[in-house]
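Researcher: Can you fold this with FE2/S2 (inorganic) cluster in place?
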Amino acid sequence: MQDQDLRSLSRRGALIGTGLAAWISRPARAEDPESAPPQAGDHLVFLTGSKKGQTIRSDDLPAGGPQMQAYPADPNGTVRNGSRLNLVIVAHIGDDGVSDETRAHMADGVVAYSGICSHQACPVSMWSNDRHAFVCSCHGSVYDPRNGAEVLAGPAPRHLAALPLKSENGLLTIAAGFVGRVGMQTS
Ligand code: FES
């Protein structure tokens, strides 16, 4: 992605990010399973595409990226889509060049992170083929999936929260809740 593209994204994203920030700052109702954060034992379901709503297996994901958007679902099949803070991105990045921290959280070469940008809480929905990295379309922040989603470029103040995974015969299962702050959370 070129600098000019990033500046264009920045202009487009200013308004989007402001509106989303108000929505996302609403507290989740922890007692509601649909709004509760992802938990160990949950699986992931596709948010969009031809497999929308289906459980995600590692071999469902395109090798090398891009990321797919997903929501957690509890063992009873209740999708935890009551809070956008639960939006997850998953990517099959393989093992090459992966940091030790990221390797500890991945399964079958797949990583999962919060899909909410740490800048102004837009969805991190784009992918850079040049950098093999996640891109936020609002203001062009770029995150490195191989290194804890550290910020490579743009205004994001910190990395995306990681979501540890494990694999049960290819079925991706959440091993623990988010590691790190989600979106614009300050604590
Ligand atoms: S919300 Fe600004 S870069 Fe993502």
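Model: Folded with FE2/S2 (inorganic) cluster in place. The longest strand covers residues 68-73.
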